[in-house]
Design a protein that fits this description.
Elements (H helix, E strand, L loop, with lengths): L5 E5 L5 H11 L6 H9 L3 E7 L2 E11 L2 E9 L8 H15 L4 E7 L3 H9 L3 E10 L6 E9 L6
Parallel strand pairs: 4-5
Antiparallel strand pairs: 1-2, 2-3, 3-4, 5-7, 6-7
The chain binds coenzyme A.
């Protein structure tokens, strides 16, 4: 039995100020509000995770031609490590499954062990490596490319 109630719902433009607070708290190299607006106008899947009516995280996924790309998955730093990221990811995988997506792709910084562990445990496999993909101060950081086949999935 959970002690606190969380719910996942669609993101709207009204969420953007809170989303930007979390985004800048969680990432050194964060998205701009314009990035989120572009994703909303493009009709991507943008979801919010609320905990006791307070927004604590969100996810962004694009879908086209049977493929999905997980573009952002973020939980407020003070709420990380409590299972909300996993729950948000499962929710996005269910949306992809319902829309008959066959493969979900994502890129993550090679140093982001928490995210890499989460994706491994959620059935993603490492399929590639992009050298110097991310800005990271004076040197650029490598990206790990993950993919998960949705065929025969029970997510
Ligand atoms: C990555 C992120 C979304 C994960 O969400 P979270 O709510 O913190 O993660 P969860 O509590 O759901 O944990 C999921 C799994 O991650 C792993 N994990 C959690 N905390 C960890 C830690 N401190 N170190 C390593 N692995 C960890 C565990 O395997 C965990 O599974 P378990 O609870 O069964 O042990 C979140 O940490 C985050 O927003 N980070 C900053 C933004 C980011 O880097 N996003 C990903 C970019 S692609």
């Amino acid at each position: 039995m959970q002690s606190s109630m969380s719910c996942i719902r669609a993101m709207t433009a009204q969420d953007l100020s809170t989303v930007m607070e979390i985004e800048t708290a969680a990432y050194v190299h964060s998205w701009s509000e314009g990035n989120f607006r572009d994703c909303l106008s493009a009709g991507y899947e943008l979801v919010i995770c609320d905990l006791e009516q307070q927004t604590i995280g969100y996810g962004v996924m694009s879908m086209a031609a049977g493929e999905a790309h997980l573009l952002n998955l973020c939980i407020h730093p003070q709420k990380q490590g409590r299972g909300y990221g996993r729950r948000l990811l499962n929710h996005l995988m269910q949306i992809a499954d319902q829309k008959n997506v066959s493969t979900v792709y994502l890129e993550v910084r090679a140093s982001n062990t928490r995210a890499c562990t989460l994706y491994h445990m959620a059935g993603f496999n490492e399929i590639g490596f992009r050298t110097g993909y991310y800005p990271s101060g004076s040197v650029r950081e490598d990206a790990v490319v993950f993919a998960r086949s949705m065929l025969n999935s029970n997510s």
